[in-house]
Amino acid sequence: MSGYVLEASGVSVRFGGVRALTGVGLGIRAGEVCGLIGPNGAGKTTLFDVLSGIRRPDRGRMLLDGADITRRSPVWRARHGMRRTFQRQQLFGQLSVADNVLVAQEWRGGGGGLAADLLALPARRARERARRTRGERVLADCGIGALGATYAGGLPVGQARMVELARAAADPPRVLLLDEPASGMSAPERERLAAVVRRLAEEGCAVLLVEHNVAFVMDLCTRVVVLDLGTVLAEGTPAGVRADPLVREAYLGAT
Ligand SMILES: Nc1ncnc2c1ncn2[C@@H]1O[C@H](COP(=O)(O)OP(=O)(O)OP(=O)(O)O)[C@@H](O)[C@H]1O
């Protein structure tokens, strides 16, 4: 056993003549926060698309708990505890913040089927209350507990990113893929983000985080993987990666 919750091996993706990923391997363990960094166009988002099932790789395979999920849909992966946020925000702008978070829990169903919904049976209402309570707790953890009734569409970037994090955390994730979660956040928001991510990891979640803010990554992550031109350039502790001459040349030296 590799000890990885999520593992990708030999992943290759081409867009016409562009090799976005070539033979990439990566694994994340329960309870770790792993950073994925690299220059623009290195293939980070493409790898996230492959891991979350949005894009089928030309080559390679993925394992969740050792079982092959390469051909599994994004929905199947989400239902088995894999969550993802996007570089470009994907909130339901017409819904309140509270409802954005509630939506993430709805896939489990209300219990009792359509009749329970139509008749608003007590068990159905109790389940809805429990979900709203969990949503409120997650929003409070994310520092946006006061925003539950606010429409998500009008939020400033930092708060909108927090709502995305809350939505991803509302139904406890086993694997969390965060694509540039700190972008547009203020320093206090970044601190809050780091605290929430650490807590999720302590609860056993495996976190993979793409982020251009290198200082943030080095501070938060226990391990860092560096992608460059679609391949893994380096991997190790934040200190080890920071000191790697190849990484300095390809990426850190330029930031
Ligand atoms: N849909 C697409 N069609 C064609 N080329 C693409 C497509 N998506 C990505 N690419 C190319 O694949 C390569 C990897 O892109 P990707 O977005 O994964 O990199 P990235 O590391 O996430 O970059 P950034 O840090 O700028 O977000 C780039 O050369 C990009 O131009």
UniProtKB/TrEMBL annotation:
The keyword Glycosyltransferase belongs to this UniProt entry's keyword annotation: no
Top-level division of the source organism's lineage: Bacteria
GO MF annotations, alphabetized: ATP binding
Keyword check for Nucleotide-binding: yes
Gene3D superfamilies listed in its UniProt record: P-loop containing nucleotide triphosphate hydrolases
Key words of the record: ATP-binding, Nucleotide-binding, Transport
InterPro entries: AAA+_ATPase (IPR003593), ABC_AA/LPS_Transport (IPR051120), ABC_transporter-like_ATP-bd (IPR003439), BCA_ABC_TP_C (IPR032823), P-loop_NTPase (IPR027417)
PANTHER family listed in its UniProt record: CONSERVED COMPONENT OF ABC TRANSPORTER FOR NATURAL AMINO ACIDS-RELATED
Protein name per the record: ABC transporter ATP-binding protein
